[in-house]
Amino acid sequence: MLPYPILTISLTLMWMLLNSFSLGHLILGALVAVFASWAMASLRPDKPKLKKWYLLPKLFFIVLYDIARSNLAVAWLIVRGRTEGRKAGFLTIPLEIEDRTALALLAIILTSTPGSVWMEYDSYDGSILMHVLDLKDEEDWIATIKGRYEKLLMEIFA
Amino acid sequence: MIYPAADLSLPVALAVAFFLLVGAALALIGAIGFLRLPSFYERLHAPALGTSWGIGGIMLASMIYFTAASSRLVIHEILIGLFVTVTTPVTFMLLARAALHRDRTARSHGVPRKYPIGPEERPREDISDEE
Predict the structure, then answer these.
(1) Which of B88, B93, B95, B115 should be substituted to probe chain A, the one whose Cβ sees the most A Cβ atoms within 10 Å?
(2) At A92, phi and psi to the nearest 5?
(3) Fewest 10 Å CB contacts: which of A15, A112, A118, B105?
């Protein structure tokens, strides 16, 4: 009956956030969510295999902290104006994750972090091309992405 | 019932002002960067300031203000933050890939090119028996 339980719960929660937390809206929202998840099921998307979902909050807070830090770094770069020492550039990073949901999540994390934009994923050799605003230390970027995000994502989407 | 802003207690008013100013300042700096950074790829990074903690700060300020002013929990702003975070990377990626495709087609310098011919024409053995 419920092909995508997480989607159904999220939709119900969103309905109640937008209206109000009452029994009537719980029933109405759940009804809408059930029909919406049936519609989703008829599209037959890949079902994400969440193995260690309890690690998601940890990932969330790590990303929140990193985004705040890079916000400050990029804001400082812009305020300081043009400098000679800064070098922006492209960066190719080989990845090991292949799960599509995990890749999508990584793309969102990297792109919504100021200072790095995901440009393309090459499924042929499993590498991504990124553009980085402050390419001071290439190794450091690769180590951050592989050690900080990829490892955690691989644990979550095992 | 929403109380007027002047009736807010000092700590709440300070918190609202702080987050509002942080969010607005980041959005402004992002806009300045969007105007001043030299190349297209670098300009792509600046608006991310406004769409990450720029929207985050204003969202937090709004949540604190309306929760205090209407004395009930108002947190549906989280949805704005969530949807902005999930959808803006799509736009950024679309713009970035369009620029990359243009530069590769124009044989521009400084654009990484993994394969000597265009990426569409790369040798692929793995799909030879499809279609």
Answers:
(1) B93
(2) -105, 130
(3) B105
ipTM for this model: 0.79
Name the pLDDT band for B29 (thresholds 50, 70, 90): very high
| Residue B131: predicted pLDDT | 37
Contact A67 B32 (CB under 8 A): no
Residues A127 and A101 in one domain: yes
Residue A65 lies in a domain: yes
- The β-bridge partners of B87 are none
A71 → closest Cβ in B26, B38, B111: B26
State percent of chain A over pLDDT 90: 13
Q: Specify the DSSP class assigned to residue A145.
A: I
Distance, CA of B89 to CA of A121 (rounded, Å): 14
Alpha-carbon distance A131 to nearest alpha carbon in chain B (angstroms): 7
Same domain, A79 and A152: yes
* Dist. CA B41–CA B44, nearest whole Å: 5
Residues A104 and A141 in one domain: yes
**Domain residue spans of chain B:** 9-105
Check residues A37 and B124 and name the one with the higher pLDDT: A37
| Cβ contacts of B93 within 8 Å, gap of 6 or more | A107, A111, A117, A118, A119
Considering only the beta carbons, identify the residue of A68, A77, A108 that sits closest to B89. Answer: A108
pTM of the model: 0.82
Q: How far is A114 from chain B (nearest CA, A)?
A: 5
pLDDT in tens, A128-142: 888 888 887 888 888
Domain holding A73, by residue range, is 53-156
